[in-house]
C-alpha cells in the first residue's frame, strides 16, 4: 500500500484538516519534476546506439586514484565542511507573526530554471509543519489539564475507598497509592523546557532528556513529601457530581428539588464512582493513543515527502530538515508517552486488581475482526433466502392460491402479520448499506453513535442478522401455506395460525437474551436507546436516541402491524382466521394513537433539548413533528370517513407537514441548499466527489415524501391488493429513511470535523471546591 493511502486510512477522521497535506505536497513535487525535465532534458544517445551510455564507458574503479595506497584520504572535517557548503536549504526556528514558535526554511540553491517551484514547496511544507506542531501542542496541553483533573479524582476516590472499606485505616499506608499524581505539572514543566530549546536550537538530545527527568523527579519528590494532602482531608472539599441521567433526576429538576451533593459512604456509591472513573481513564488513554499516532504519522509523512524531494531534485535536503523536525516539539516531546505509561500503571493497580493482562485488555480493546465464518454464513443465508423465495413463488403459482376464495381472507389477516418482518429486514438492509458507505467515505459513525471501542458491528454482521431473520420469516410463510393447503393436517390449524406469533416471540427473546451471543453489546445498546425513546422527556437526549426515534417515524406501518398482532391473537378468533379488528372501536382509536406515537417521541425529545440546551432550532424542529402528527391523524381519519371535509383537512395538513419536513431534511439535517457555497446549492465540504449524487438524493427525498398522496388520491390498482399497496408505500418510506441516514450522519461528521471533536466527554464523579484550593496555594 502506498504511504498516501496508508496515511489516509490511519488518520483520525475528525482531525483530517490538521494533518500534513501530503497529497498537495506531492503535486508540487510533480511540478518540480516536470520543470526540471523541461529545463534539463536528459542527454540523447549517439546515433546508432540502442544501449545506455554507461555500458560503453571505459572500465575503471580498481586502479582509480582513490584506491591507491599513497592517495591522501579526505578528513572528516573536510567532509563536514563540504556537506555544510553543499546544503541546499537552511532551516531555522523563528518567532511567527502570531507570537508562536515555528520553522522557516531558506532555499540556498539556484532558483533559476524551475527553482521557484522548490521555493513554493518549502514555503508550503513549513506552513503545514507549523500547523501540525500548533495543533499537536494544543492537544497535548488539553490532555495535561485533563491528567491533572484525573489526579484529583483519583485522590478523592482513594480517600472514599478508605472511608468505605475501613474508616479507621491510616492514610499514611496509602499515601503513595495514586501513581499519576502531579504528572501533569511535571510534563508541563518539561514542555516549557522543550519550547525554550526549540527557540534556541542549541541543546543536545541527551542533555535535554537528562534535564527533563531531573526536573520531573524533583517535582514528584517535592509534591509527595510536602504538598500532597492527606486523602481523608480531601473529602472535606469534595462534593458529588450529579451527572447521572435518570428519570428521577429529571423529575427532581422539574420539581426544583435541591440535589443532594453530600458524600454518602456506601459500597454502592463506591462502585458507581469507580465505574465512572474507569470509563474516564479508558477514554483518556484512547485520546493519548490517537495523539501518539498523530505525531508518528505526521513525522513519517514529512520524512517520506523529503525523501521524494531528494530523489526528484538529486539534492540532500532531507537530513537538515528532519534534524530540525526531530528537535521540534513534535519530534522530541514525550509527555504523551509518559502519560500513557502512568495511566497503564494506575489503571492496572486500581481498576484491574493489579492484573496487567486484564487491565491492558480494558485499556486497549481490539477492534472487531472480520471473520471468515461471518462471510460464509452470510453467503449461506443469502442463498437460502433466495431458494425459499423462489419456492414460495412456485408454490403460489402451482396451486393458484391467489385466485382461490381464501386468498382475500389470507391477505386481510396473515399478510399484515408477516409484513412486519419484511419492514424490519428492509430497514436492516438499508442500515447495512449505510454502514458500508459510511466506512467507504470515512464517516466516523461509531464515535457519533457512542459505541464502545471494538463493539461496533460492520455491514456484514448486519446483513447476516437480516438474512437470518428473512430465512425464518419466509420459512414460516411456506410452512403456513403448506399446512393450510394439506387437508390431512386440519387438526394443526391452530398451530398454523400461531406461527407468526411464535416467530415474533422468538425475535423478541433473541433481542433481550442475556447470554453473550448474537452481538449482545449491540443488542443492549439498541434496547437502551429504545427505552430512552419511550421515556423521551425523562432522559437527556443524545444523537443515538433521536436518530433511533427518527427511524421509528418511518416504521408507522410496522407499529400498526404490531397493534394488529395484539388484536388478532386476543380476539380469540384466530383459529378460524377471522378478525373483527377493523370494526372494533378500541382498535380504531389506538390506530390513531399508534400512528402518532413515534412523532410524539421526537416531539418530546425536541422539547427536552429546547429547555435544556436553550436552542431555539429545537423548538422549530418540534413544530415540524407536531405538524406531522396532525397530518398523520387527519389522513387516518380520512381513511375511516371518506368525506370532502376530512379530505380537505388532510390535504392541507399533509401539504404543510411534507413541505416543512422536506425543507428541514435538506437544509438542517443535510446542510444542503446553500446558494453561497462553493459547491452551488450544496455545502462547502462534500464527502462524495460527485455532486450529482446529492441532487439525486434531494430529488428522491422530495418524491418519496409525497408517497402519502396515495392515501388521499385513493389510488387503486387491479393487480395489487390493498394490503400489498400499503406495504409498498411503507417500504418506500423505509428506503427514503435509509438515504436520509447517510447524509444526516455525513453532515454530523463534518460538523465534528470542523470542531476537531474526536472524543466523547465523560462525566467525572467528584466536584472540587476550587475556592479552598486557591486559598491553600
Write the layout of secondary structure elements.
Layout: H1 3-10, H2 22-39, H3 76-86, E1 89-95, E2 101-107, H4 115-165, H5 183-200, H6 205-227, H7 231-234, E3 238-240, H8 247-254, H9 267-313, H10 318-327, H11 329-332, H12 335-351, H13 356-363, H14 372-399, H15 406-440, H16 445-449, H17 459-485, H18 493-511, H19 520-534, H20 543-553, H21 556-570, H22 585-613, H23 616-640, H24 644-669, H25 691-705, H26 709-713, H27 722-754, E4 766-768, H28 770-776
Antiparallel strand pairs: 1-2, 3-4
Helix pairs in contact: 1-9, 2-4, 2-9, 4-5, 4-9, 5-6, 5-12, 9-10, 9-12, 12-13, 14-17, 15-17, 15-18, 15-21, 15-27, 17-18, 19-20, 20-22, 21-22, 22-23, 23-24, 24-25, 25-27
